[in-house]
Amino acid sequence: MKKNILLAALLAAFMATNLCVAQNTQRGTKLEKEECEDLALQVATNPRASGSGVSNSESIAFNTAKLQARNELAAQIAVEVTSILQHRMEQYTQTAGACTQFNVNRDDYRGAVTGNDNSARTISGILERDSMVIVQKVSQILTNTKPICNNTYKQPDDSFKVYVCMEMDLQTQRQAYTTLKEEGIIEKDLTGDGNNDIDFNEKEFLIELAKAREDYNAKKAQE
Fold this sequence. Notes:
Blueprint: H1 2-27, H2 35-41, E1 48-55, H3 58-96, H4 107-112, H5 123-141, E2 149-154, E3 160-167, H6 170-182, E4 187-188, E5 198-199, H7 202-222
């Protein structure tokens, strides 16, 4: 009797093991994030981004990874800043009763709206151009930023694959504020009357940027 009970127990365990293996096979192989990639995805006070590079030269792979992370971080800042600007510009049109076309007091915008091209005067047109400027300027600011994470892997073909994570610290965010203000991104004379209809001081900009980052991270988490 005891022998039959033992055999029944072993059989049940064997079937459970096979069932578990079958379920795992159906689910596929669990993929784990690389350390630097995972660090970039973690919720943090400062904006982060990761990048990777592959080359037969370790230094080239490292520089490629840094460039990718730097561009990704600049693009992230562009999304956050333009979302702030869009909110402010929409508020302006509601409170001032203004139409959705502006006479933006910037040489590149004035040059862009000559002829029949009025797209640069719209909110979307302005933000599209602002986004390109932000990516360019922030990428330049991040040139000397050192990675907070850096891992190198030797590939089977003897090439190197490098992962990095870069972070934009508070000092660099302040530098970005100064640069974007000089470029007329975060202060705007929308009507051309000589008064800035949109203007941020440094503290206000950093607070708004942190809020926009929370929204950005929440959307990324849902993807």
